[in-house]
Amino acid sequence: MSTSSHLLSRRSFGRFAAASAAAAVGTTALGACGPGKGGASSGTPLRIMAINHVWSQAVKRRLGEFEELAGRRVSMTLLTADQLASSYNVKLNASGSDVDVMMVRALQEQTLFAHNGWLVDLTDRVKGDARFDWSDFQDAPRAASATRGKVLSVPVVTERPVLYYRKDLAEELGGVPGTLDALMAASLEAADRRRGRYGFVGRGQRSGAVSQWSSFLYSHGGDFVVDGASGIGSREALAAYTYYGRLLGRTGPPGATNMSLEQAMPVFAQGRAAFYIDADAVYSSFLDPKVATEQVRESVGFAPFPAGPAGARPHNIPSWSLGINAFSRLRDESWEFIRWAAGVEQSRKLQEAGIPGARASVWSDPRSLKKFPAELAESMRVNARRGLGYDRPRVLQVGRARDIIGRPLVAGILGEPVGPAARDADAEFADFLVRDNRHKESR
């Protein structure tokens, strides 16, 4: 995603007469949208741009329901992550009004979009709509939806790290690891690298590993930024770097520093590792005969993130959220779509289909968790209660920050001294934060 995009003048938008009436109807009944003062008519389709994800696929199948309630056609385009990023860069730099609702990552591009003025401030809408009930969203995802005090997106998909383990192997290794120390001991015991058997597998790619490593960092008592300054040179961060490097470097597969989700997940799915920590959203891969071996499907277990020196502090993030393009001529209609798609009823339906959402009331409803294995559902609840709402630093240039932070991870996995690498990364990240903050304040 480009970080040098400039902001062009915003256009003025009219309010739609039907909006206030629709706002009082609730998430399950929408009023028809009449012609807008800005020139948009009820025949103008509402245009949604989204990631090709199980959530957006499920919503797309249900669009007829919204169209009937709203009296407006909807066009929904599903793209890969790279395609979505490129499309946003082109359209928003050109102040394009040909997209209304945008599926965004609150922790990846929202800060940049906010800096450029590309997202509508939703604060008054979410807090002023009693039926939508903003307080019903989990604390961590709700907090992550705001940038500089303004709510810019509504979370619709959440994610936490879960400990996947082989039940048959864990029994021989002292049971399910409840602490990071126990995970290390069990992984070292399970590893037989000469025979292609590994104790632990996880992401090791320099930038891509940072989001999963964040839970190890927090559970060691560290953070990316402390009091506005770099925290990755702290004693706690050094311990987290050293731990993860040893865990993956000593007990994981060769070439781990090249592993992202796509490379690490199959190692566990094919029965070559005893333990694996990654997003709970990928759990279905280990129940799928096309991906996982029969042995893994029958023996896979799910557990909360293990406790470190500072306790168990996993992330609980909004992996995907909905925002409104600041250049849209259909702001009110866009909000009505968000109220419907992120409302209690749709959130429950989607979570009952196995897509984890962000509403606390839905999570507390046993019916919404029947699709998930019972052990996984409990692990997700525990991690959500303990979780922090971010898995990367909240900066403009997220990709650059992750690249800096990931360097000591690679050193540790390769068995190189972590201390010097962490000191160098800390100095570079400290300088980066100064420049990044100056860029934020340059508007």
From TrEMBL:
SUPFAM superfamilies: Periplasmic binding protein-like II (SSF53850). This is Sugar ABC transporter substrate-binding protein. Pfam families: SBP_bac_1. It comes from Streptomyces gougerotii. It comes from the Bacteria. PANTHER family: ABC TRANSPORTER PERIPLASMIC-BINDING PROTEIN YCJN-RELATED, ARABINOSE-BINDING PROTEIN-RELATED. Belongs to the bacterial solute-binding protein 1 family. The keyword Transport applies. Keywords: Signal, Transport.
